[in-house]
Amino acid sequence: MPEGQPRLRPCVVVHYHEVGLKGRNRPFFLQTLEQNLRRATAGLGVKRVERASGRILLWLEPGAAWEPLRERIARVFGVVNFSRGYAVQPGLAAIIQGVLAHLPEAGAFATFAVRARRAFKDLPLSSREIAVELGAAVQQASGAGVNLSAPDMTIYVEVLPQGALFFFDKIRGPGGLPVGSSAPVTVLLSGGIDSPVAACRMLKRGSRATLVHFHSFPFLNRASQEKARELAQIIRGYQGDTVLYLVPLGEIQRKVVVACPAPYRVVLYRRFMVRIAEALGERHGAQALVTGDSLGQVASQTIENLIAVEDAATQIILRPLIGMDKQEIADEAERIGTYALSIQPDQDCCALFVPSNPSIHTDLKGIRAAESALDVESLVQQGIAEAEVVEYGQREKHSAAEQKKNTLPV
Range with the lowest mean pLDDT among 101-105, 182-186, 367-371? Predict the structure, then answer.
C-alpha cells in the first residue's frame, strides 16, 4: 500500500432490526444469526464474524468474491440489509482518503449524499460535520452535485469503536428472525405455489422446516416428486441443511375410495397426510405442522373442511397464508424464487380419485364415521414405513429434547 494511504479492511456490514428488539433474549437471537451467517458464507472468504455496536461484521479475505457472498447473505433470515464495505481508522482524514479511493468512475453518478452515524462518540467531529467535510471532498474530486432527497449514490459512514466503516449501497435482506430461534416445524410440501411460500414464512419467524411431500406413484408419474426435490433445494438456500420425505399415498387413497363415501375423499386424504407428516416431523423435534392453506381457495380449504382435517392432528396446524389471495401468494413466490418451478405442470396426489362432488361442509361426525371403515393406524404406519428420506447437506442430529432446549428462552 502506498505510503500515506489508509489501511483498508474489506468487510460486509450486516444490519438487523427485529433481532435487536428482544430485550434480555437478544444475545440468543444474535448468536443464532451469527451462526447462520457463518454457515451461509462458509468457503467464501469470510475470515471472522463479529458483533459491533448494533450490527454484525463479516471480515473478508482479500479478493473474496462478492457475488456469491451477496447471494448467500440475501437469504439469511434476520438480516434487514447488508453492504459491501471497508473499515479504516476512525479519523476524518482516513475516512476521506478511503472513500475517495473507492468512488465509482467519473460520470457514474451526477449527484450524491453522505449519511454519517457515530456509535463511537470520542471522535471530535459530529455526524453532521463528518458528512459536510466528506461531502466537500467528494464534490471536489468528482464534480458531482449534492442531492439529499434523491441522490444517484449514497455514501454511508458509520463510526464504531472498532474503526470507521464506509459503503455505497444497502442491499435488502429478508428480515424476520434467524432460522433456529423458534421451535422446528413440519411443512406439507406440495408441488404448487402455496406451500413453499408457507415454508419460507415460517423460516422467517425462526423455525427450521422438515419437508414432507405426498405423491401417488405408481398410479401417477414422478413429476411431483422431482418438483418437490427442486423446491427443497431452493428452501435449503434459506435455512441450510434440509430433510425432505417423499411419501407414497396412492395405496392409501385406493383404500379410501373402496371403503368411504366419495364426497369425503379429499378430506380423508388430508387427514392421513396430517398423521403421517406429524410422525415424520417428530423425528426431528418438530412441534407444529404447516400447510399452504388459503381460506376458500379450493374445496378442502373451507372452514368446515379445515376443522375436519385439523381434528386428525395432535399438534397445532399453522397456516401462514390463510388470509392471502392467490395473487399475493404468487407475488411472494416470485420473490423467494419458487414461482417458475411451482407453475410447471405435474400430477398432484390429490388429483387421484377426486370425486365430482367433493364435500365443502364436512361435519366431524360424518368424517369420523366414514373413517371408521378403515384401519387408520395400519395405513398411517404403512405411509411412514414407505417414506423415502432425502437429505440436503450434513445436518446435525438432535433429539427432540435437544431441539426444545435450543429454542427461544422463556
Answer: 101-105
Tell me what pLDDT residue 360 has. Answer: 83
- CA torsion angle for 264, 266, 269, 273 (degrees, to 10)? -130
Considering the four listed CATH numbers 3.30.2350.10, 3.90.340.10, 3.90.180.10, 3.40.50.620, the one that applies to the domain covering 185-405 is 3.40.50.620
CB burial of 285-302 (b: ≥16 within 10 Å; e: otherwise) equals bbbbbbbbbbeebebbbb
Q: Name residue, grid cell 402455496.
A: 194
pLDDT digits (tens, 9 = 90+) for 235-251: 999 999 999 999 999 99
The residues near 205 (Cβ < 8 Å, ≥ 6 apart) are 176, 177, 182
Task: Pull the grid cell for residue 399.
Answer: 433429539
pLDDT band for position 408 (cuts 50, 70, 90): very low
Listed range (84-88, 233-237, 294-298) with the worst mean pLDDT: 294-298
C-alpha to C-alpha distance for 15 and 115, rounded to whole angstroms = 15
Handedness of CA 138, 144, 148, 153 (dihedral sign): negative
CATH code for the domain defined by 9-172:
3.30.2130.30
Mean residue pLDDT of the chain comes to 89
Write down the domain spans for the chain. Answer: 9-172, 185-405
Residue 48: is its pLDDT beyond 90? yes
pTM strictly above 0.85: yes
- The mean per-residue pLDDT over the stretch 296-300 comes to 81
Quick one: average pLDDT of 166-179? 95
Check for a shared fold between 9-172 and 185-405.
no
